[in-house]
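#onboarding

Welcome to the new folks! Below is a worked example of what a typical request in this channel looks like: someone posts a single protein sequence, and someone else replies with the predicted structure as tokens. Don't worry about understanding the tokens yet, we'll cover that in week two.

Example request:
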Amino acid sequence: MADHLDAPGLKSPFGDAKTDITDIYIFQKPGDDDKSILILNVNPLAPTLATEFQHSAAYDMLIDTDGDARADIGYRITFTEKDDGKQWADVEKTRRAPSMELDHDGEDHEPIIDHAPVSFGSSEHITEGEDGYKFFAGFRSDPFFFDLLAFLAGLKFHNPGSDFFIDKNVFSIVLEVPNRRGLGENPNVGYWARTLIPMGNGDDLGQDDQMGRPAINTVFNHGTAKNLFNATPPDQQRALFLSSFVSTLEALGGYSATQATGIADILLPDILTYNYNNSSGFLNGRKLTDDVIDAELSLVSNGAITSDFVGPHTDYLTHFPYVGKPH
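Example response:
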């Protein structure tokens, strides 16, 4: 899986599917190279596990503009309680990583989208903001494609593969941003996402899930290390997890320790790298159609496994919000 159910035992972090990140994407807007599309998907197997966004949580899209694995620009999405079948979203932009508080005290923050309706049906309720921003949040088809059952059976992939996610749904958050204003003057950025939930008393939040590249936590971490990885900021990940990544690469791909260390140094920190002047896909950002699993299977197996024999879905939209209508 990409990041679905990435707590131990194939469960959602802290048991809450509403803040369980499944995938993130970032790519140049088709037909407009002055804008980019950021996507954050949560809630695997929706609506079975959850039927709304978590109103007490914060959903953060984070941008590193200078390569230090720390957020310089953040987009925080928060939601109201669901009432009479309706829910609403606000989006704020911060000039540095959003704080662990819902009220943003002391931060340089800018409202981007106010009181946007969440889409619970097949229609897309899209909200236009000022300065070229556009927003969607709601129930969508899961764009991820992968033969999960073959993976769980010990990487026993066969042609044709069976796409476990072909009829599954998620909840999507999609933000269209102007490149220079929304992502910074430097076109080379890093992108990752996190979800925060209340921890203890008061308004303090704690990080319960995060994701950069697909399938990192699900493949390279084991047992309670999965929870620790979800709570560890990217700039601290190499120090804590390099050795376990090296061990996994040695075991799965037969790499030497030197080779495995070189690859692990690239995989950590877990951030999607992206140049907004470049329309190519993964490893430059990630498009919905990018076959990231084939690329990563080949990497971790040292070329022994090159495909899971499933491909992109056919229900992606050619227009905003790009994620397909729910099944």
